[in-house]
Amino acid sequence: MPHGLLEALDLVVARRAAGALPGDRRAAGLGAGTELAQLRPYTVGDDVRQIDPSATARTGTPHVRLHVPERTLTTWIALDVSPSMAFGTTDRLKSDVAEGVTSVLGRLAVRRAGSVALMTFGAGAPRLHPPRASKPGVVALQRALAEGVGADGQGDAHALGDALLRVGKVATQPGLVIVISDFRDQEHWTRPLGALRLRHSVLAIEVRDPREGELPAVGRLALVDPETGERIEVDSSRRGLRERFAQLEAERRGLVARELRRLTVEHVVLSTAGDWLRELGRRLR
After folding, report:
1. Which residue, 121, 113, 111, 112, is CA-closest to 77?
2. CATH numbers and ranges of domains, the chain
3. What single string gives the DSSP state of each residue in 119-143?
4. At what angle do helices 3-16 and 94-109 cross, to 10 degrees?
């Protein structure tokens, strides 16, 4: 992985966090930090290291400084592991791109003393891997990614919406939410995503394959829906069929883009063709 690109992405993700990095948001209560919250007389049991020399000399009475504690950023990654993510016709599968993005962003999430959590969905009930910091967070992420995608016929059209609802329940403090999915055959995700957008910075990363947008003219094809297992046969040599296929796909992708734009959610599209990492860096600048 190019070191320079990783450093650039680190800064870009920091900006996308919308000020949720340590020191940029006030945390509740008092504790260790850099921002002064209170200056008061010393009482037995106070940390003597917090005694303020200036206030003590000025008043003749020992005074201690209390600070607003800094709160680290928690990054919540919602990862699509539904059967449709196991599709790919060019350099790699969609799941390969999704796992690569998850790995990169997870490593960036823990670089600034932050923590990363992973919610996988699309293969049974959503599964939460709770927030962890530093090396344990990266290790937990890699173990979860090693489980791969779901088997054919296990798709759930409500999986994305259910996962976002669950993230909204457990992510009580403002943070960064990253949704990585192909957004195919998913329903009822706009409302829970909009609710997350009210509290968190949200980034949607859509993963596509070129063959999902156009049907090649190769004669008769047997096509299987990975989400349902349904099988159909089509004659791809028919020009009208190919044009209709491309039109419907463009409409579906346009609908996803419009919904994300309406929710003011940052939208990045990555492909299984080419260098997805450099494209991610370019689109986030």
Report:
1. 121
2. 35-68 (no CATH), 74-284 (3.40.50.410)
3. EEESSSS-EEEEEEEHHHHHHHHHH
4. 70
Distance of alpha carbon 176 from alpha carbon 265, whole angstroms: 12
Pair of tokens at residue 43: 């009482």
Q: Nearest Cα to 163, choosing from 127, 203, 194? A: 127
pLDDT category at 150 given cuts 50, 70, 90 is confident
179-191: b (≥16 Cβ within 10 Å) or e: bbbbbbbbeebbe
Question: Who's near 116: CB < 8 A, 6+ residues apart?
Answer: 74, 75, 76, 77, 105, 106, 109, 110, 131, 132, 133, 137, 138, 141
Distance CA 277, CA 2 (A): 9
What angle is formed at CA 161 by the lines to CA 158 and CA 166, rounded to 5 degrees?
120
Neighbour count for residue 78 (Cβ, 10 Å): 27
Show the DSSP H helices in 17-150 as ranges.
53-59, 94-109, 134-145
Q: CA 106 to CA 117: how far, in whole Å?
A: 8
Q: How many CB atoms lie within 10 A of CB 279?
A: 16
Residue type, 73: L
Q: How far apart are CA 114 and CA 75, in angstroms?
A: 8
Q: Return the number of other C-beta atoms located less than 10 Å from residue 163's C-beta.
A: 27
Rounded Cα distance, 242 and 236, in Å: 7
pLDDT of 170 above 90: yes
Rounded to two decimals, what is the model's pTM? 0.78
